[in-house]
Each structure stands twice: as C-alpha cells, then as structure tokens.
SLV.37
Amino acid sequence: MREALDVSVWDAYYADGRHFRPVMDEEREALRRMAAPRPGLSALDVGCGTGGFAKCLAEEGYSVLGVDYSEKAIEIAQSSFTETSGLRFMCLNAESDEWETFESYDLISARLAYAFIEQKQEFLKRVRDHLSPGGSFHVMTPLAESLPESRKSVGITADELEEMCQGWSSVQEYALDAQHTAYTLTV
Ligand SMILES: C[S@@+](CC[C@H](N)C(=O)[O-])C[C@H]1O[C@@H](n2cnc3c(N)ncnc32)[C@H](O)[C@@H]1O
C-alpha cells in the first residue's frame, strides 16, 4: 500500500533546493516518436515540479501550462524559465481543484507524477475529459516491479499500469532505461 504524501513534504523537498532527474534525451525522443509534437499544439503538464519537462514540451512546440500543488515548485518553475516562450505555470491540486476552466489539450503529461495520484480512476476520467479529439496522455514512470523494495512506492504497480492503459484507441510504450518507461495513450 502506497502512503499518501502531503504537499508539505514536496514543498520542503523543493525548498531544500532539491529536484528530480533532469529530462533525459531518451524522453525527448520518446515524445517525438509517440506523440509527434509540432508547433500549435497545446499541453498540460500535471505534477510539473520545477518545470523541466514542461520546458521540454515548450521547446518541442507546444503551448504549455504546467501545474503542481507545491507552491514552492511553482515559484521555482516560474522564475527559472522566463526566457522560454509558450510556457506558464499554475499552482493547483490536480485531484481536488476544479479543471472546469481549463480548455482541452492535445497532450496531457505526467512525468514521475502519476504514481502519486491517489484516486487514479477519477484522475484518468479528468484527463480524458480534457483531451482534444485525437489527443494523448503521456506518462513517464518507473514500474514498481523494477524498483528496490525501499523505492517501490514511487513506481506504479502492474494493476495500475493495466488500469491506466485501458480504453484508449492506441497505447504506445518506449523503454527509457532499466527502470523508466514512457507511455503515450491516445483517445
Ligand atoms: C516526483 S515529482 C516530479 C516532478 C516533475 N514532474 C519532474 O519530473 O521533475 C512529483 C510531483 O507531483 C506533484 N503532485 C503530486 N500530487 C499532485 C496533485 N494532486 N496535484 C498537483 N501536483 C501533484 C508533487 O508536488 C511533485 O512536484
């Protein structure tokens, strides 16, 4: 059973100057191959942290909104990428705050964040409801089975993977390294 993390844990982590793994070249390649980015498309990066993947999406041509419920993460993201056009950030709890004012997106991404979503079925419904026709949900995550016991909670289980991949017209996957896989799930 995964222990729910409070937002204060993330805030303290970011306030300490810590961050997560930088975006790998392979992730950009996975995105290019599976989601075919191009200028003019829109993206929502959920659980964006300090914004590294959102920046990558903007560089690939998307107009991007990055959201995270850690105020500290959003503060850092907002001050880090002032030169990158088409990129903005907002503090928001992607599970409990409304998405109603959001438009539809061509891509919704969750990099190293999907494992921490507590109510995954409800979240998946929100994602589908906010994807444009033909849009995709792009997830980068470790699989719990590939992680040591002490870190299993940061990955998704085989059951969670199966649930996540159900009901899409296409499911593509790209192995990034021994522990991380990218999935692009298309409406
Ligand atoms: C492991 S970090 C990954 C951050 C970033 N995507 C990256 O790759 O560096 C997970 C992030 O998800 C955010 N998060 C978790 N649950 C969330 C929720 N319900 N709403 C918004 N953000 C959430 C956390 O605050 C944290 O920044």
